[in-house]
Amino acid sequence: AHLAGLRSAVLAPTAWAQSDKPVKFILPVSAGSGVDAIVRGAAPALGKALATSVVVENQPGAGGVVGTQALVRAAPDGHTLGVVSNNHVIYPSVLRSVPFDPVDDITPITIIATSPMVFVVNPKVPAKDMKELVALLKANPGKYNYASSGNGTILHLAAEMFKMVTNTHITHIPYRGTGPMMSDIISGQVDMGVLAMPAVHGQLRSGALRAVCVASAKRSTGAPDVLTAAEQGYPSYLVEGWSAAVGPKGLPPAQVRRVNEAFAVALATPEVREAMDKQGNTIILSTPEQAQAHFKSELAKYAAIVKRAGVTLQ
After folding, report:
1. CB 126: neighbour CB atoms within 10 A?
2. Is 86 exposed, middle or buried (0-12, 13-18, 19+ CB in 10 A)?
3. Which of the chain's termini has less CB crowding within 10 Å, N or C?
4. CA-CA distances (angstroms) from residue 299 to 123, 153, 241?
5. Residue-wise pLDDT tens for the chain (314 aa)?
6. φ and ψ of 308, to 5 deg
7. Which residues neighbour 56 within 8 Å (Cβ) at sequence distance 6 or greater?
């Protein structure tokens, strides 16, 4: 119903002239991540809705700070935008200094979607579900390790939360981005890790990785046979990825509206909706005001998680 309401609002006459200058979306993540899968899946429809070509540029590094800094410094003319994830509001809690303010130095446009997190293992790890994995970890303290996309990223915190909830010990090995992290779990260099469903649903289908649980309230359309942690007796293991479209500080309200509407149009097209569903995403499409409020509440939430997990500052 929410989407239907948005769609009718979108058809209100806001005509945008065809522009020769492309709109560039900076993604502060590596190729192969959940956010990357979402934006690339929607890019052609977005270009159509924005009446210009869309360029998607990955700028990973420093857990996402590098790409976000490039976005923050861009001119607020609507030609440089970004799509960020939970990491955007985690930095202030895990880095000693961040070269921008995650709320004041950006213009929130919309929360695009949420994605379930999946705890995965290399198929050689002899555990089919959470119960077996927890028993294995407790019987072999210090033997197993997990990969993350970088210290203090959502994928790091999601694994630390798993350790807290299950009272187990797994050694952390940080990587530079989701792509390298995932290929090393697949090759068996590392035993396990947490990944966003859109990044991993193909690997689960092919059997390159095995899912132990999804950390969402209900099962994911991306892998409907994978049990939730709650179904396996760990209801407090809940962590969800989200993606949000943002612009530089001072992006004019007309541009904010233009991009918000374009996302609504793009995500209402059958092919994009199907792609989102297949990846296991839930389309949210919030207003800019809701996005702003979300950034603030998530900032506080992750500060508390980081404290509890005892993550060392970088």
Report:
1. 9
2. buried
3. N
4. 35, 13, 14
5. 444 444 434 444 344 455 678 999 999 988 888 899 899 999 999 999 999 999 999 998 777 888 999 999 999 999 999 999 998 999 889 888 889 999 999 999 999 999 999 999 999 999 999 999 999 999 999 899 999 998 888 999 999 999 999 999 999 999 988 989 999 999 999 999 999 999 999 999 999 999 999 999 999 988 999 999 999 999 999 999 999 999 999 999 999 999 999 999 999 999 999 999 988 899 999 999 999 999 999 999 899 888 888 887 67
6. -65, -35
7. 24, 25, 27, 36, 39, 40, 43
Give, in order, the Cα–Cα distances in Å from 145 to each of 68, 163, 206: 29, 11, 23
Distance (Å, rounded) from C-alpha 9 to C-alpha 97? 41
Give the predicted TM-score (pTM) of the model.
0.84
The span from the CA of 233 to the CA of 165, in Å, is: 11
Cα separation, 93 vs 297, whole angstroms: 14
Beta strands in 86-239 (DSSP E): 106-121, 145-148, 171-174, 192-196, 210-214
Helices (H) and strands (E) in the chain, counts: 11, 10
Question: DSSP label at 228?
Answer: B
β-pair partners for 117 = 196
Chain-centre distance for alpha carbon 113 = 9
Burial of 24 per CB tally in 10 Å (0-12, 13-18, 19+): middle
Q: Cα separation of 264 and 312, whole Å?
A: 39
Cβ-contact 261, 180 below 8 angstroms: no
d(CA 193, CA 114): 19
Give residues with Cβ within 8 angstroms of 219, minimum separation 6: 226, 227, 228
Around 240, how many Cα atoms within 13 Å sit in the side-chain half-sphere? 16
Phi, psi of 91 (to 5 degrees): -45, -50
